[in-house]
Design a protein that fits this description.
Blueprint: E1 6-13, E2 22-29, E3 35-45, H1 47-53, E4 70-77, E5 89-92, H2 103-106, E6 125-126, E7 131-132, E8 140-144, E9 149-150, H3 157-160, H4 166-176, E10 184-188, H5 192-203, E11 207-212, H6 218-224, E12 228-231, H7 235-241, E13 245-250, H8 259-262, E14 265-273, H9 286-289, E15 294-297, H10 303-316, E16 322-326, H11 330-338, E17 345-349
Parallel strand pairs: 10-11, 10-13, 11-12, 13-14, 14-15, 16-17
Antiparallel strand pairs: 1-2, 3-4, 3-8, 3-17, 4-5, 5-9, 6-7
Helix pairs in contact: 4-5, 4-10
The protein binds NADP nicotinamide-adenine-dinucleotide phosphate (NAP) and zinc ion (ZN) (2 copies).
Residues 46-48, 51, 165-166, 169, 189-194, 212-214, 217, 251-256, 274-277, 298-300, 337, 340, 342 line the site of NADP nicotinamide-adenine-dinucleotide phosphate (NAP).
């Protein structure tokens, strides 16, 4: 395929795992007939951005431009675009493409495409430019219309940005495991994902318990919807809930002991990991064998489910609790994220990059 005509946009990138992010210029393709060009207004800061920028998962191509919680305005559309017009408020999450033919794509589960992570908004492969995809820490992005989402008109745009990853990543497993009324559901870690998991589990009617390592977050956890909060470093508090959960979603970004959470589950209970720490997490056999418990993972969500989640948020007035930052505060924000000091999602005001 011939390289399409491109235009330059400002972005924030890093050239190596140990180097802070800094201003640079990147190329975007001119919209093809099926593309939507989006001026980025806000971009959430996911812990995955940090894992990726620092190559903690081992597959980062440099220069790296993170960012996959994108909200913006359509500034141009290709001649064949049917769903969007100039001026629409739209979102782009963790996916900008997929093979569209494998069984997962056919089932609307593009996140599990046979091509693996090739469709990623960053760290994927841009088949138009024949180069790694570059994310949302940038002025604009060009995306095929099939991977562009609509943002409900009643939602605050900045606070809606984190829905594009933190939102769908927690909504999807809660729906898959049919969380609802009559169930006791745990959420591990009150960060970007964790606080969205609490909001959704509560909205779905479950009894929600938040596990945290930060005693200072107890009041906030209740404010965002937890019925109860357990400080996980307190053995007595942990023992009081042992064997009582139907389902637990673990949204922790760093090393921690999964076995203590398996032991919190009832018979046939499930612990789903959404957190993606750098190193493997050891699992003992007995916490699984006893009570036939299971351990699973879950990756973001497909495009149809992401739209469903956004519409659900519009109907129920759900957004993230955010702290707005300027683009040039990103390195400091990463350091605060590593200290679990975010309330509860940083969002970059992308006009600060103009
Ligand atoms: P985050 O905002 O930094 O939150 C992580 C939370 O984990 C912290 O707020 C903290 O909560 C807890 N935590 C941190 N260090 C800990 C430790 N050493 N031991 C126990 N708890 C600890 O991160 P995020 O953006 O929500 O992302 C969370 C994880 O999910 C990351 O690994 C990210 O890459 C991954 N992720 C996965 C998917 C997916 O598709 N599966 C999508 C997006 C992100 P407390 O202070 O309450 O303890
Ligand atoms: Zn993310
Ligand atoms: Zn596929």
């Amino acid at each position: 395929m011939a390289k399409p005509v491109c235009f330059s946009v400002k972005a924030y990138a890093t050239p190596a795992a140990t180097v802070p992010l800094a201003a640079t210029t990147i190329e975007r393709r001119q919209p093809t007939p099926t593309d939507v060009q989006i001026q980025i207004l806000y971009c959430g800061v996911c812990h995955s951005d940090l894992h990726f920028a620092r190559n903690e998962w081992g597959f980062t191509a440099y220069p790296a431009v993170p960012g996959h919680e994108i909200v913006g305005r359509v500034t141009a559309v290709g001649s064949g675009v049917k769903k969007f017009k100039v001026g629409d408020t739209v979102g782009v999450g963790c996916l900008v493409d997929s093979c569209r033919t494998c069984p997962s794509c056919a089932a609307g589960l593009e996140q599990y495409c046979d091509l693996g992570l090739a469709g990623g908004t960053y760290g994927g492969w841009d088949k138009h430019l024949n180069a790694p995809t570059l994310g949302g820490y940038s002025q604009s992005i060009v995306v095929t219309e099939d991977f562009v989402l609509r943002i409900p008109a009643n939602l605050d745009l900045a606070a809606a940005a984190p829905l594009l990853c933190a939102g769908i990543t927690t909504y999807s497993p809660l729906r898959h495991w049919k969380v609802g009324a009559g169930q006791k559901v745990g959420v591990v870690g009150l960060g970007g994902l964790g606080h969205m998991a609490v909001k959704f589990a509560r909205a779905f009617g479950a009894h929600v318990v938040l596990f945290t390592t930060s005693p200072g977050k107890v009041a906030d956890a209740k404010r965002v919807g937890a019925h109860d909060v357990v400080v996980s470093t307190d053995d007595k508090q942990m023992a009081a809930h042992a064997g009582s959960f139907d389902f637990i979603v673990d949204a922790v970004s760093a090393q921690h002991d999964l076995n203590v959470y398996l032991n919190q589950l009832k018979r046939d209970g499930n612990l789903t990991l959404v957190g993606a720490p750098e190193k493997p997490l050891p699992v003992a056999s007995f916490p699984l064998l006893l009570r036939r418990r299971s351990l699973s993972g879950s990756l973001i969500g497909g495009i149809a489910e992401t739209q469903e989640m956004l519409d659900f948020c519009g109907q129920h007035g759900i957004t993230a609790d955010i702290e707005m930052i300027r683009m040039d505060e990103i390195n400091e924000a990463y350091e605060r994220m590593l200290k679990s000091d975010v309330k509860y999602r940083f969002v970059i005001d992308m006009t600060s990059l103009q």
